[in-house]
Amino acid sequence: MAGEPGLAALYGRYIGQIQARIERAWLRPRAAIGSDLFRCQVQIDQGRGGGVGDITLQRCNGTAQWQESLVRAIEDASPLSAPPNPAVFTPHVVLVFRSTGYTQDAPSGEFQPIPAPAVRQHRATAVALTRIRALRWPAVARFGKDAVIELDITGSQVHVVRKH
User: Fold this and answer.
1) Would you say 17 and 95 are in contact if contact means Cβ atoms under 8 Å apart?
2) Which among 11, 158, 159, 3 is positioned nearest to 84, based on CA atoms?
3) How many other CB atoms are there within 10 angstroms of residue 3's CB atom?
4) Which residue intervals of the chain bear CATH 3.30.1150.10?
5) What is the pLDDT of residues 87-111, one digit of tens each?
């Protein structure tokens, strides 16, 4: 391909399509990377139809969770993009992936979602705290701001009593 600029351009486009397909499939962990930037060089062995065979992480930093998320993305992206010209097909693709860690303003589609039980638990806790805080002002009005109170919560019933 070195002597054929047209094929070199097609090869570059082909590798770019493979990389983009994997990037779209990659759900990065919300967990810490272990450094400022996750970087991983990976070799992907593929068949003529784009089916992924062996995946070799060659030089990677980050935690096992980050590395495993990249391997899952490669597997999920299989079959990989077909070459625009059969002459540029390669059975061994070497790519480098980089990512910063999760932040609150990160695009939601790039990171693993919060597990549903954790979301429900978070919402339930927030609702409970709101209800408990709502009891504060009636208790202050009834017993005074320095009073120690005791909450007795049974089912949906809440009883506020002054603790002596």
Assistant:
1) no
2) 11
3) 6
4) 5-110
5) 999 999 999 999 999 988 888 789 8
Region 5-110: CATH code:
3.30.1150.10
**DSSP letter string, 34-83:** SSSEEEEEEEEEE-TT--EEEEEEEEE-S-HHHHHHHHHHHHHTPSPPPP
Is residue 132 helix, strand or coil?
A: helix
The pair phi, psi for residue 106, each rounded to 5°, is -70, 145
Q: Measured between alpha carbons, how far is 51 from 49 in angstroms, rounded to an integer?
A: 6
pLDDT of residue 67: 96
Residue 110 and residue 28 in contact, taking contact as beta carbons nearer than 8 Å: yes
- Tokens of residue 18, six digits: 């493979």
> What are the CA-CA distances from residue 4 to residues 7, 9, 86, 88, 118 (Å)?
5, 9, 14, 11, 55
3-state SS class at 151: strand
**Mean pLDDT for the chain overall:** 87
| Interhelix angle 5-25/64-76, nearest 10 degrees | 120
- Taking 90 as the threshold, does the pLDDT of residue 135 lie above it? no
Rounded CA-CA distance 22/96 in Å is 11
Residue 98: enclosing H or E segment and its boundaries? strand 92-100
Tell me: the pLDDT tens digits for 62-81? Answer: 999 999 999 999 999 999 99
